């Protein structure tokens, strides 16, 4: 996908409290797999540094899809576990994409409009 | 700040190509300091994992502030350097925050509306 305009991007920024990495990584990977099965799923990107601060962005076709994922019972349960076990704090921002673009070393600018020359 | 509703969040996801960490880290820190001086700056969050994939979210009061930062000459120059030296690829999504919330271990839910009980 080269253009995310109109998608809903849920930005989840969190500070891990411990180094219980295997347990956390398994749960996070399971959530990523489950998210990918939901209607309207458009991808997940995640990064976490050695300091335990991480950002995950999940991309959704629309607000309804993002809300449905928020309400998924397994997702609700894992958020409870996150507060109890994994995080010192987090912030969630639910956003709408106004424009997007990409660049890749082997492709150059990847235009949002497929009718443009690449 | 406890509520980012209405802010512009610029999501920059990138794949680093090399481990030229000291040079890159210095340039990234300089950009963070410069961004913080711009009108409408509301914060920057960054995370990058050992695999070289990172996400930086810069938060702006409005679209004009985000566009002004995009056009800052030093920022333009560092993006050229990023394409030439540091990245295999990146994606930018410019988004508007519809709602946001926070949780912290020592404070619980941090309400967006300061008139609400915490």
TrEMBL record, chains A, B:
- ABM domain residues: 8-80
Q: What SUPFAM superfamilies does the record tag this protein with?
A: Dimeric alpha+beta barrel (SSF54909)
The highest taxon in the source lineage is Bacteria
Q: Which InterPro entries match?
A: ABM_dom, Dimeric_a/b-barrel, Jasmonate_Hydroxylase-like
Xref: Pfam families:
ABM
Q: What is this protein called?
A: ABM domain-containing protein
Taxonomic source organism: Sphingomonas cynarae
């Amino acid at each position: 996908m080269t253009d995310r305009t109109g998608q809903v991007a849920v930005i989840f920024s969190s500070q891990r409290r411990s180094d219980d990495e295997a347990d956390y990584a398994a749960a996070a990977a399971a959530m990523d797999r489950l998210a990918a099965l939901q209607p309207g799923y458009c991808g997940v990107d995640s990064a976490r540094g050695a300091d335990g601060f991480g950002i995950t962005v999940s991309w959704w076709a629309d607000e309804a899809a993002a809300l449905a994922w928020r309400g998924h019972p397994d997702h609700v349960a894992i958020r409870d576990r996150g507060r109890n076990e994994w995080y010192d704090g987090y912030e969630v921002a639910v956003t709408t994409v106004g424009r997007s673009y990409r660049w890749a070393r082997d492709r150059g600018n990847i235009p949002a409009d497929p009718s443009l020359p690449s």
